[in-house]
Amino acid sequence: MKKKIRIGTIGLGLMGKSIATCILAAGHEVTSLEKNIDQAKADARIQIKSYLQQLHDEGMIREDPDVVIQRLTITDDFSLFEKHEVVFESIIENIDEKKIIFRKLESVLSPTAIIGTNTSGIPVTILQQGLKHPERLLGIHWAEPAHITRFMEVICGNQTDIDYAHRIISLVEGWGKEPSLLRKDIRGFIANRIMYAMLREAFHLVEKGYATVEDVDRSLRNDLGSWITFAGPFRFMDITGIPAYLTVMKDLFKELDNADKAPSLMEELVSSGAKGVNNAHGFYPYTKESAEQWEKRFVEFSYDIRKLAEKYSQTVER
Description:
Blueprint: E1 7-10, H1 14-25, E2 30-33, H2 37-57, H3 65-68, E3 72-75, E4 86-89, H4 95-106, E5 114-117, H5 124-128, E6 137-142, E7 152-156, H6 162-173, E8 180-182, H7 191-207, H8 213-222, H9 224-227, H10 233-240, H11 242-252, H12 264-271, H13 288-311
Parallel strand pairs: 1-2, 1-4, 2-3, 4-5, 5-6, 7-8
Antiparallel strand pairs: 6-7
Helix pairs in contact: 1-2
């Protein structure tokens, strides 16, 4: 059996710890770089061990988490990445900070090693500017929790060699991911563009008094939420009959909100200090205890929905 490559990660924040867990669970040795090295060696290692234990309890890994965690090296030394073939960066969404990381990586990596940048909205083409080897930089859009979800978007910038994208897709499919490939760079990528179009319309309905926050959530949970894991929008139209959608599009599209400013309700909520369950202050009222319960339920749901998605494979014999 071919030995699995050692993979690097940069950043051990919330997403970074989840990413490192995902890679460890797939059987790789992982080198994780974090500038706050002392805190990371304690707090990050404990959290990653907890994630691995969850995966083990859910039957998603068979190895003892105590054994798996031994494959993790936490460092603040870029030189340890010298022989790595793949490094995933996962720091704050700041162009300048990310470019500093890329320059340091290019000083130690081979010219053909892949650099993946975890970003939700920064165009990869912008991040490629000024690199010695821009062709090997890819956008890698993970979803939280990264060690549970099957989601990943692999994004090509204007200078990306698509062969590198295919290498990453082949790699992560072996981790149980179901990646999508964006062959052309566009802000927001696939999932975020569609989600934010939905959010804009959701705010419109609430702010104009058509429905409450609770009613919007209820409708989407019980309609969109009942089929979206089984089929994306195009497959769903195939299953439920294409012509009716054209009829509705012709009438409805012109009625949909097309505002180019953030909703005032959102501005007001953020100004009031709301962060959601993170600080028990959001669109809904929370106590500290209920906020923690919602976070716990979301993790449980993430495991359940992955199992359901795996049960209904997207491959059907023709």
